[in-house]
Amino acid sequence: MAAGPRATADTAPAAGAGEVEGEHIKPFTPEKAKEIIMSLQQPAIFCNMAVDWPAQHWTAEHLSEVLHGKQIRFRMGMKRTDTAPQFETTCGYVEATLEEFLTWNCDQSPLSGPFRDYDHSKFWAYADYKYFVSLFDDKTDIFEGVIWSDFGFPGRNGRESTLWIGSMGAHTPCHLDSYGCNLVFQVQGRKRWHLFPPEDTPFLYPTRIPYEESSVFSKINVVNPDLKRFPRFCKARRHMVTLNPGQVLFVPRHWWHYVESIDPVTVSINSWIELVEETSHEVNCRYLNRAVSALFDYYRTSKVVEIQALRTNREHMKKEGLNVHNHMEMEQTGGQDLSLGVVKQEAASLFGPDLVPVILTSEELPSKTGSIFEGDGKDFVGEDGEHSGKLHCTKRQRMMSKSEDAIVEQNASNSNMAPSQTLISTDDLLDCLLNPQVTRIVAQLLIQGRSLWF
């Protein structure tokens, strides 16, 4: 996925970014970056946020000199296209220096040394998620090369990070991290990410690896799946992106991911973050009231216009019936569909040249079931004589059509009201949360969530 150009001192700042003469101008302030991370529900790539990090200029060769002969554990895997994942329990391991790894990775298969039993043409290797505090225990100044505080986490740097170094073809089987979200800074080379949303967990056949408590793995090799054995995987929604040097990938909590090195040497830096909203009850109530006010404002300004437009386009019966049905459902459910639309619009507005969403690899066809129209065996013919298909309004649709005027008038009469000034109180929240219906729904979600893992 293409990214925007890297920021320089003369790059025009995006909204919310501050200008400091003589320094790189970043597209997002730390506060805005954290706000995005706290609100995003899908993976996204931050561009131009690490242009001034010292780690931007690191290479595997440079790190080899810094580590100065320190032994690192490398995982060894086969370069093959098997349908079974290569879990860590089935891989070999080598204790070697980064210098020895680089020599082996240059296709100079040694006759002696730690990699002597592994033909470079048949094996890949990587040092997976090595903690900075263990690797660089006597060189703590290197921690300052990673500046996660730019993303709104003050004081967080390399001390809270892990290092990943691998050869071409090295990969991590598809898994989800059982805690926190993930920020990944690509330093050298490129890595290809295959991501799946948490809702697709039943399609990924989750399993646990012995002695591994921080991750849940998929039984499927997602780049070469056995669909006869795992047929539900066809329903999984794959999001795929290639992460380039200088970019930072945000992986939300519980998103599945398969990661593969596609260059001869790949270096990346990870930081797992537990997102805890550090705000008071009063601030949270203020946010809630702003959201409700925005919903009412949107409802007042758009709903009447939309219904009036429907009234002037009755010849398009299918579209008209669908929209009226949606409007009526919103009247009954408190505007849930409308609020979802507002959320989607707000999320879309975040993206631009410096924040790139990770999207589905292919579009899915919409479901052909669940139409609100019922066929009676007769074709509907419009005023222009063109057939619109075997569609016929049911009694409910006709009633909704007749009630449009009443809806418009009701909304018009309410347009002068100020629902945004009706504050939601703590008592209102408690009444909602302690409602038996809400308790029942929460209990069902908890039971369903537990059943996904076992």
Give a concise summary.
This protein is of the alpha+beta class and 454 residues long.
Please provide a written account of the structure.
The protein is an alpha+beta fold and 454 residues long. Helix content is 30%, strand content 19%. The protein contains eleven helices and 15 strands. The strands form two sheets. The chain has a nine-stranded antiparallel sheet. A hairpin with a 7-residue loop joins β9 and β10 (215-218). The longest helix is centred in the middle third of the chain and has 31 residues, at 281-311. It is globular, with a radius of gyration of 27 Å. The two termini are 36 Å apart. Mean pLDDT is 76; it is low at 1-21, 330-343, 363-398 and 411-420.
How many β-strands, per DSSP? 15
Give the biggest beta sheet.
Answer: 9 strands, antiparallel
Estimated share of beta-strand residues:
15-25%
Helix fraction bin: 25-40%
By secondary-structure content and strand pairing, the structural class works out as alpha+beta
Overall pLDDT: 76
Shape: globular
Strand order of the largest sheet: 3-2-4-5-14-7-12-1-15
Low-confidence spans: 1-21, 330-343, 363-398, 411-420
Order of helices and strands: HEHEEHEHEEEEEEEEEEHHHEHHHH
Instruction: Tell me the radius of gyration.
Output: 27 Å
> How many DSSP helices?
11
What's the N-to-C terminus distance?
Answer: 36 Å
